[in-house]
Description:
single chain, about 260 residues, alpha/beta, Elongation Factor Tu (Ef-tu), domain 3, Rossmann fold, about 30% strand
Amino acid sequence: MKNVYELRPAQIIKVIVETPITKTLVLKIEKQRSFKFLAGQFMQIGLPGFGECPISISSNPEDSAKYFSLTIRAVGDLTEKLNNLKRGEKVYVRGPFGNGFPEVNKDLVLIGGGCGFIPLRSVYEENKKRKDVKMQLFIGCANEDSLVFQPELQEMKVKSDLNLILEKQILKGYSKQKGYITDLLKSKKVFSDALVFICGPEVMYKFVLKGLLAQKVKAENIYFSLEKRMHCGVGVCQHCAIGTKYVCKDGPVFDYEYLKSINYI
Length: 265
């Protein structure tokens, strides 16, 4: 039986600076070849004396036998410490935990606000080479300093219908207006019969949902990733209870039908 509390040392094989306060740690563990995860799952990452925290996996699941990536924004003591580590140093991980996004069997719409595109990048990477799936991306954040994966935007623009908006500035070559993702949804037609995966600040969810339903997107095709309040990662501390389920164990991905049934959105 797998011990969900077992800490596994992971070596940092690469550090990628995404923004002034966000870095991607590319990690490799012992027996990496047997490591597997689903897009949307997360890892617990920590350091002795600093504790641990849940972080979404941002790399392609198809590369899991070689490495996995965690994109971390420095917002506290632990995350600041993690973002100061260098290639060759070690961290400790548990996981992967939670459930992932459902199987992609039709066109795909990814909507990420703030840090919300981090887990969605995993979905994008897994599906970007498919010829049977068209992808539409909606990405929004405050400004260029908070926009992750910037070197990949040109590829995203080529391989998908990329729609980008910043609250406080216009990003030349990518955005034509300032504002929020909801402004994009008012001016852009969403793919009709597509799966819609959403992640971002929960304050945006009801407004994004309203925009999607106004465009006649089917409710059963809408999924949200709720990345908040998780602590233990295995549904023991009950810190992340949501209705009769736990975000860390039964989520972080939930379909809209369940969230509607408990009046969450």
